[in-house]
Amino acid sequence: MLNPSLKIKDTLGSASTKYDFGCMGHAFHSVVGYCWLYYNSSSQSRRNSSIRYSLLWANKTQLNTNTNTIIMNFIKKTFLTSLALITGLVAIAQEEEAAPAPTFGLSGSIDTYYRSSEYIPGTAFGNLPGFAMGMANLIVSYEGEKSGFVADLVFGPRGADAVFGSPQTGIDGDPHFYRSSNIVNQLYAYYNVSDSFTLTMGNFNTFLGYEVISPVANFNYTTSYMFSWGPFSHSGIKADIAAGENTSIMLAVLNTTDATEFQPLDDDYMFGAQLGIFGQYINYLGGGTTGVSQIDFTGGFNLGDSFFLGINATSYSDDNNVEFSGVAFYPQYTFSDSFALGARFEAFSEDGLGAIGSVSGEGDNTSFTVTGSYTSGNFIFKPEIRIDSASDKFYTDADGATDSLAAFLVAAIYSF
Question: Model-level pTM?
Fold first, then answer.
């Protein structure tokens, strides 16, 4: 009885020949004695395309020779296929391993200072006399492959100034309904729709201005009039778009400025926009409950290996006939890895804002601040001298009304 075990093509004959072979009473791999090999061929030379069958007599040596060839070809193809499959699986595993793991972060800073003068200009932060606290800042963050969140908490006088709009009156009329909100500087979640498109919703610090709330990121410890009287934070949703290697776009729908906890649905929302080109940013903020319109430019230029010049300019108006505008330059020179010296020259004008001391109408102020910055690891030591000069006697000192104020301040900052 014939054991059909394998079909081969074009091993003993032409490409049009097929062979069936087997052995009597034995499996293919244990052939002994003689085996029979049947073949059939389609002869194209025969007009009636008839099939003829013949019986070939093969000896053990011929069959084993062809059998070994077939086996080696089979093993070779099987090995190559397996190798390709394993290589593909390894590549997939490596690609999965290369994906960044989610990261949990805890960072922040503390700052404290000494101020030599009891009399202060009308700007935010660093305004308490003698030895005083700044704030403790704790930032909890979680960054996944596509999404994450930031919870930024502040404690102390500087933090209280930063979130001055909280707590708002709760829905039950209790002014302390949201009592824990007065430590929330930022609280937002984000989703990376793609490598160039990110959506963020929640409460985040403003995109306007050169300066920020944290003293770690500012060169000068005290802040400018433009920053102090501009927005600190917004609540809403924004889209950040990378439009090219050196171009970015931000669009936002926001609550009224510094209404960070909530806003009644009947109130008008604000619209924010930012265009960034080669590190220079044009910002716009408009709408809200008071019909705000503010345009702002923030940027800077490296004028050498050690010299940087920052620039900020802004113009604000609203439906309550409040207006202010200003421009500031921030030259900074780095002497070594541990020491740098910087200044701020600011010219500020207002009408109806009440920022410059006791002014009730129009008024102008120029401010000159010089700050040294010594860094050792995470520790920053900043001595600072500030002089403010107003267009009239809007300020007050020990002798009464005056048009100028001066103060020396030294701050200690630690970041982690």
Answer: 0.73
